C-alpha cells in the first residue's frame, strides 16, 4: 500500500487545523501512521483510496472528518477552447486519452513534491505500473495548441526529460532510465504513442517519459494534463483525482475537446441507498437524517427521503462500486471507537487445520536441522521458475491474466527456485546459509503443499542434500526410493529423484553451476524439494483436505 508524505506546514494550511488534531484523527479514518518526523508524517493509505494519495486529497477528506466542512465539494469546469486529435492507429496500441487544462497554478517545492508523489502513486495503484494508465503533466505556456495524440515512428527524435540531447524514441527505450523500466509496454508495437503540439514539438512519449520542453517548475502557472492508457475508466479516474487535487490549492479547471467530447466534467454520480440495509450491515439503529449527516462529513452529497438516502458521490471516489462501500464510510464517520465489542452469538471452538499441523511437523524438523524458514512470494515469473532453473515450462503452470509487473506473471509451481532467488539477494551475508520454505504450490489449477530447502557454503554437495531430505522423510514417516534424476537444475551424477511407490514425490542434489550463474551465486548449493502429498495419511485428496484424518 502507498505511503504518503504529509508536510505539517502545508497540511495545516490546507486543513485549517493543527497537526496534533489531524494526526490524532487519521488512524480513525482508516489509515496507519508509519512514522512522524520533525517536519512531516508518513501515512499508509489503502490502495482503494487513490484520492488520498496527496496532501491535497487528505486535507479535503480531513476537513469533512473534523467538521470544518461538510457535503459534496463542487468543482466548476469551463471550456478551454483547446482540442486534442487522436490517431486511429493507436486503437490497438494505447487507445484512450484524457486531458484537462489547469490554470492559476501556484507551485512551491512542497506542492511539486506532493504532485509528483500523487502521480507516481496513481501510476502504481490505478495504472498498474503505467500499463492501464500513465500521466503527463506539462507547462502549457511552453507549447502551442491544438495538440495531437499520434502513433509515431520509433525514429522520431526529441529531448526527453532530464536529458540535454535529442534521442529517438527507440534510443529512449534502450538508454533512458524510465525507458528501460517501461519499455515492455510499447517496444513490441511497430509505432509508439506520441503527443505533439501544433508545431510538432513533443510534449510526451506516453507511457515512458515527458519531453524536457514542458518541464513543470515553480514558475509554471498553467498546466496541460494528459493521461493515456488501455483502460478508459482508469484514464478518467486519474484525470478527476489530479484535477480536484489542483482545485484544492485554488487552481481553476478547464475542459479539453477530445474528438468532439469535452473532458473532464468533474460531475458527481448518484445512487440511492436504503436506511435499513445500512443499519443491518453496521449493527446500528441510525435514522435516515443521521446517515445523511455522516455521509456529508465524508464529503458526499446526501439527503434523506423516506426509507432511503439519496447520495451524490464525488468524481474522485473511484472506489465506490456498491452500496456497502457507502455504508463503510457511514461506519467511519460514526466512529469505530463507538462500536460496542460483542461476542458472536454462536460459540465455536477453533481447531488447527490438518494441513497446518503437517506443515508444523515439517517446520520443527527443518529448524532442528539448523535451517531458517523463509516465506517467498506466491507469485513469480517464467525467468525464475523455469529459465534460470534450466527447466521446461510445465503446461499446468497457472499464469496471471493481468499482471502488474513482469516479476509477477505466474503462480509458483515449485518453491526451490524462489529460495535460490532469495540466496541471490543475500550474497553479502556470511556463510553457511541454510534456508527452507513450506507452503502452497499450484499445478493444473490444483493447490497442494511442498517443502524445499537450500544449503549454500563452499563445500556444499550432494551428500548435504541427501542427508537433509532423508532426515525429513524419516521425521514424516515417509518411505521412499532414491533413483537417478534427469532434472537439469542439478548436476548430472549428483542428483536424485524421490519415489513413493511408483510416484515421484521429490528431487534433491547439487545445484547445476549454470543455474548458480543464472542466479549470480558464487558458492555451491545443495537443495531439495518434496511434495507433501507423498506423506502417509496426507489429509485428503488434492486440493480438498479432509479434517480428522490426521
Summarize, please.
This protein has 550 residues and is an alpha+beta fold.
Which structural traits does this protein have?
single chain; 550 residues; alpha+beta; 15 helices; 28% helix; disordered C terminus
What does this structure look like?
The chain is of the alpha+beta class and 550 residues long. It has 15 helices and 27 strands. Strands 4, 5, 6, 7, 10, 11, 12, 13, 14 and 15 form a ten-stranded mixed beta sheet that branches. A seven-stranded mixed beta sheet has the order 19-22-23-27-26-25-24, with helices on both faces. α1 (8-15) crosses α3 (55-65), α9 (288-297) crosses α10 (323-334) and α11 packs across α14 (462-476). The longest helix is centred in the first third of the chain and has 17 residues, at 109-125. The radius of gyration is 29 Å and the shape is globular.
Secondary structure: elements and pairs:
Elements (H helix, E strand, L loop, with lengths): L2 E5 H8 L3 H7 L6 E5 L3 E5 L10 H11 L11 E10 L9 E8 L5 H17 L7 E7 L7 E6 L4 E2 L8 E2 H7 L1 H6 L9 E5 L5 E4 L3 E2 L12 E7 L2 H16 L4 E7 L2 E3 L5 E6 H8 L5 H10 L3 E5 L2 E6 L9 H12 L19 H15 L3 E2 L5 E2 L1 H6 L22 E2 L4 H9 L8 E11 L2 E11 L5 H15 L4 E4 L5 E11 L2 E9 L1 H6 L6 E7 L19
Parallel strand pairs: 4-7, 4-14, 19-22
Antiparallel strand pairs: 1-3, 2-3, 5-13, 5-14, 6-13, 7-10, 8-9, 10-11, 11-12, 14-15, 16-18, 17-18, 20-21, 22-23, 23-27, 24-25, 25-26, 26-27
Helix pairs in contact: 1-3, 9-10, 11-14
Task: Give the fraction of residues assigned to helices.
Answer: 25-40%
In terms of DSSP E residues, the strand content is 25-35%
Helix tally equals 15
Total number of beta strands: 27
Poorly predicted regions are 541-550
Secondary-structure-derived class: alpha+beta
Largest sheet: 10 strands, mixed
Shape: globular
Rg of Cα set = 29 Å
Average residue-wise pLDDT? 91
Beginning-to-end CA distance, first to last residue: 38 Å
Amino acid at each position: 500500500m502507498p505511503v504518503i508524505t504529509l508536510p505539517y506546514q502545508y497540511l495545516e494550511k490546507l486543513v485549517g487545523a493543527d497537526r496534533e488534531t489531524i494526526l490524532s484523527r487519521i488512524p480513525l479514518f482508516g489509515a496507519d501512521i508509519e512514522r512522524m518526523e520533525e517536519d512531516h508524517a508518513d501515512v499508509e493509505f489503502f490502495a482503494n483510496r487513490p484520492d488520498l494519495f496527496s496532501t491535497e486529497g487528505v486535507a479535503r477528506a480531513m476537513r469533512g472528518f473534523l467538521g470544518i466542512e461538510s457535503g459534496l465539494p463542487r468543482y466548476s469546469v469551463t471550456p478551454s477552447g483547446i482540442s486534442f486529435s487522436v490517431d486511429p492507429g493507436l486503437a490497438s496500441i494505447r487507445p484512450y486519452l484524457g486531458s484537462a487544462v489547469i490554470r492559476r497554478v501556484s507551485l512551491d517545492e512542497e506542492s511539486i513534491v506532493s504532485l509528483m508523489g500523487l502521480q507516481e502513486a496513481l501510476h502504481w495503484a490505478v495504472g498498474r505500473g503505467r500499463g492501464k494508465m500513465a500521466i503527463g503533466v506539462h507547462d502549457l505556456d511552453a507549447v502551442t495548441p491544438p495538440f495531437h495524440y499520434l502513433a509515431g515512428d520509433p525514429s522520431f527524435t526529441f529531448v526527453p526529460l532530464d536529458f540535454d540531447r535529442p534521442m529517438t524514441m527507440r534510443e529512449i527505450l534502450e538508454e533512458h532510465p524510465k525507458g528501460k523500466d517501461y519499455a515492455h509496454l510499447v517496444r513490441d508495437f511497430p509505432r509508439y504513442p506520441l503527443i505533439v503540439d501544433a508545431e510538432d514539438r513533443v510534449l510526451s512519449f506516453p507511457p515512458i517519459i515527458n519531453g524536457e520542453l514542458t518541464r513543470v517548475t515553480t514558475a509554471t502557472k498553467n498546466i496541460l494534463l494528459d493521461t493515456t492508457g488501455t483502460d478508459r475508466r482508469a484514464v478518467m479516474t486519474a484525470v478527476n483525482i489530479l484535477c480536484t487535487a489542483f482545485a484544492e490549492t485554488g487552481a481553476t479547471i478547464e475542459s479539453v475537446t477530445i474528438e468532439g467530447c469535452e473532458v473532464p466534467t468533474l460531475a458527481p454520480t448518484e445512487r440511492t441507498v436504503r436506511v435499513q440495509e445500512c443499519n443491518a450491515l453496521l449493527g446500528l439503529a441510525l435514522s435516515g437524517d443521521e446517515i445523511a449527516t455522516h455521509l456529508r462529513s465524508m464529503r458526499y452529497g446526501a439527503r434523506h427521503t423516506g426509507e432511503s438516502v439519496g447520495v451524490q458521490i464525488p468524481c474522485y471516489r473511484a472506489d465506490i462500486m456498491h452500496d456497502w462501500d457507502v455504508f463503510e464510510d457511514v461506519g467511519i464517520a460514526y466512529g469505530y471507537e463507538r462500536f460496542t465489542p460483542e461476542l458472536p452469538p454462536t460459540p465455536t471452538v477453533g481447531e488447527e487445520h490438518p494441513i497446518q499441523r503437517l506443515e508444523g511437523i515439517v517446520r520443527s524438523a527443518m529448524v532442528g536441522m539448523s535451517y531458517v524458514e523463509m516465506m517467498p512470494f506466491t507469485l513469480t515469473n517464467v525467468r525464475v521458475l523455469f529459465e534460470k532453473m534450466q527447466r521446461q515450462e510445465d503446461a499446468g503452470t497457472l499464469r496471471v491474466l493481468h499482471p502488474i509487473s513482469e516479476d509477477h506473471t505466474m503462480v509458483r509451481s515449485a518453491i526451490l527456485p524462489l529460495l535460490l532467488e532469495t540466496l541471490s539477494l543475500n550474497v553479502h551475508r556470511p556463510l553457511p546459509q541454510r534456508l527452507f520454505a513450506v507452503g502452497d504450490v499450484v499445478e493444473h489449477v490444483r493447490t497442494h503443499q511442498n517443502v524445499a530447502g537450500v544449503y549454500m557454503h563452499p563445500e556444499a554437495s550432494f551428500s548435504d542434500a541427501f542427508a537433509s531430505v532423508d532426515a525429513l522423510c524419516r521425521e514424516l514417516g515417509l518411505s521412499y526410493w532414491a533413483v537417478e534424476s534427469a532434472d537439469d537444475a542439478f548436476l548430472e551424477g549428483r542428483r536424485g529423484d524421490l519415489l513413493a511407490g511408483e510416484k515421484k514425490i521429490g528431487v534433491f542434489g547439487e545445484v547445476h553451476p549454470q543455474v548458480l550463474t543464472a542466479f549470480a551465486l558464487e558458492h555451491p548449493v545443495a537443495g531439495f524439494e518434496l511434495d507433501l502429498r507423498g506423506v502417509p495419511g496426507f489429509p485428503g485428496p488434492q486440493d480438498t483436505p479432509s479434517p480428522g484424518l490426521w
